[in-house]
Design brief:
Layout: H1 2-20, H2 23-26, H3 29-43, H4 46-53, H5 57-72, E1 135-136, E2 140-141, H6 144-153, E3 154-160, E4 165-168, E5 177-181, E6 186-193, E7 196-201, E8 204-209, E9 213-219, H7 224-234, H8 266-278, H9 286-289, E10 294-296, E11 306-309, E12 325-331, E13 334-338, E14 343-347, H10 350-354, E15 356-361
Antiparallel strand pairs: 1-2, 3-6, 3-9, 4-5, 6-7, 7-8, 10-15, 11-12, 11-15, 12-13, 13-14
Helix pairs in contact: 1-3, 1-4, 7-8
Length: 363
């Protein structure tokens, strides 16, 4: 019986604490407890107080328990954090140490009210070029200016490295083959495109794969007219040789109506190229041309000069009758001419050097 009365007294004490003390004082359970205990003793209405106290237990008991727990030093387990408890100024960092979202491979979405952590730059961010550096793209040398400079002073050529290499109408193996190149044959390059070289062949622009070509360069002449003469000659590479082919003109400006670019011999090729490129009239044969223009010493040969040779059948002749062949000099012992088969660019051979007679300059 004494135990029942004691419980009733405690319940009535809690009830009266809510009735006679404001909320701010109820936050101090130890202070409120002594006051309400004395009031409960006076009222002696424990039964009524017990019935009413049950509704208030859930609100008073947490505060009382929290203070009592702290007072005796017991560790308390706080309630789980709700959405409102998370600070928006301190976003959570994804686990695993990754700096970016969606990199852990899980399907869990970040909390909708938690601001995502900004992506941080990775280690692959390119460094800014240093002042005064002459390279672009993180150290890759820009060769475009060098190429432009070379194009101004040098002419690009290629030499074929295979036999029966197709010359196609476009820059690709899917284009029609319109000719073939043989090993060691050389061509002047008009352009480079996607691993293909554009060249002249029999008056047409065709393409050869870079896989079967090696580049070389020759210094250009400062005289634009000379370069124009050579360009006219490059277009004839591959054109068949025909002895006594029809000339462009008679050497005096009278043009032949039946002239064609389908065939040339050595002197008709030089006559055509010099008129086409520099409007210069040359004679119809090598023995006439060798007496025209300006004589040039062998040691002073320049690009665009014409070299006249003898041959086996004329070797023992005298005077101009020894002359039997002509070629246009390109530099570094390279010549442009046609001889026995078709027009071509090639290096002077030791045998042909022995047949050298003299050189003439027309431009």
């Amino acid at each position: 019986m004494a135990q029942i009365k004691r419980k009733s007294l405690i319940l009535s004490t809690i009830f009266l604490s809510r009735r006679y003390f404001p909320a701010e004082k109820r936050r101090k359970p130890c202070y409120n407890l002594s006051k309400t205990f004395r009031e409960a003793t006076r009222m002696k209405k424990t039964k009524n107080a017990a019935a009413l106290i049950l509704a208030a237990v859930m609100t008073i008991l947490p505060a009382y328990s929290l203070t009592a727990g702290n007072r005796i030093g017991r560790p308390l387990i706080s309630a789980p954090a709700t959405k409102e408890d998370i600070s928006e100024e301190t976003p959570e960092t994804p686990s695993g140490g990754n700096d970016t979202n969606d990199s852990s491979g899980t399907d869990a979405d970040p909390a909708p009210d938690t601001p995502p952590r900004p992506d941080e730059p990775d280690d692959n961010t390119p460094d800014e070029p240093s002042a005064g550096d002459d390279t672009n793209n993180g150290g890759t040398k820009d060769e475009s200016k060098d190429d432009e400079s070379q194009e101004e002073t040098e002419r690009l050529y290629i030499v074929c490295s295979g036999n029966g290499v197709n010359l196609r109408t476009g820059a690709g193996s899917g284009y029609k083959a319109a000719g073939t190149a043989q090993k060691d044959e050389s061509y002047a390059v008009l352009a480079k495109l996607n691993g293909w070289y554009c060249i002249y062949y029999r008056g047409k622009q065709l393409y050869i794969s870079a896989a079967y070509a090696k580049e070389f360069r020759l210094k250009k002449s400062e005289n634009a007219a000379i370069e124009a003469v050579l360009e006219a000659g490059y277009a004839l590479i591959g054109t068949p040789y025909v002895f006594g082919a029809v000339r462009l003109h008679d050497g005096k400006g009278n043009f032949y109506k039946n002239f064609t670019t389908n065939a040339f011999d050595c002197s008709s090729l030089t006559q055509y190229a010099f008129y086409k490129g520099a409007k210069k009239l040359l004679g119809t044969t090598t023995r006439i041309q060798v007496k025209e223009g300006k004589a040039v010493k062998r040691s002073e040969l320049q690009r665009g000069d014409c070299i006249y040779f003898t041959n086996a059948s004329r070797y023992y002749n005298t005077g101009v009758e020894r002359v039997g062949h002509v070629a246009i000099y390109l530099g570094d012992d390279y010549i442009l001419h046609t001889s026995s088969d078709y027009a071509r660019i090639e290096k002077l051979t030791a045998a042909r050097k022995k047949y050298y007679i003299e050189a003439r300059r027309f431009v």
